[in-house]
PTS system mannose-specific EIID component
Amino acid sequence: MTTTDVSPATPAPGTPEARELPKKEFRSIFWRSFSLLGSFNFQRMEGLAFLYAVLPSLKRIYKGDEPGLRTAAKRQMETFNMTVAPSPLVMGAAVAMEEKAKADPNFDQTSISAVKVALMGPLSGIGDTFFWGIFRILAISLSLGFAEQGSWLAPIVLLVVFNVPNFLTRWYTLKLGYRQGQEIMVSMGEPRTMQLFTYCAGIVGAMAMGSMTAFWVTIKSPLKFTISKNPIIIQDYLDQIFPKLLPIGFTLLIFWMLRKHMNVLAIIGIIIGVGFVLGAFKIIAGA
């Protein structure tokens, strides 16, 4: 991952913004973006940390213009709240628009805040789907396999699987946000682009959940009967009807309870109680 060490250049009107932030400034925003939740409050939420992240760029843009710097700082400290991993995209776009605002006296400065607000919702939806719905569950599931065997690799696998996508997303969305600037709204506003992206993310998430259910939820039925001297093994019949029928049924039952807003502790208690009773009567068993 590299960035060019050149000063930003103002693109010609109507042409794509093929430019890069100075290397030092780019890395400063990248690392400062990790502090986004460090000063969370219910007045401006992540707004203060957003300003902290883009402040090096603001100081460059408004160098020698103290009133302009104060105005821009107040603007960038306005209420901001979204999933943290893709937030550098908004930071990059905000910096690009601040450059335009400084260069063009007729630039509508209120559009900077408007673009930030408009990006929060869609990016949070995508970020939550990938990072809380897929990467988090995938990282925990993989690390549990190592932890179950007592391996010291378990915490390392957890951190690597979750944080590699996190770091890459922050790095490349910052580059994309700065290059696109205000035009990012045009790209994201293409008909059905966001809907299609979110729909595909949902499919990937559902596939991941299905794979992990088959791998980690191990429920079988040891029930056996003998009819006319012929052994009847219930699990064999269940596998012929639908392989992994009991694990997927159990998972969907828990999902239904969660959809009904049942208390998680109550659900855990039900699982323990029902599992103990069914296990004691040898109706179900683990792997």
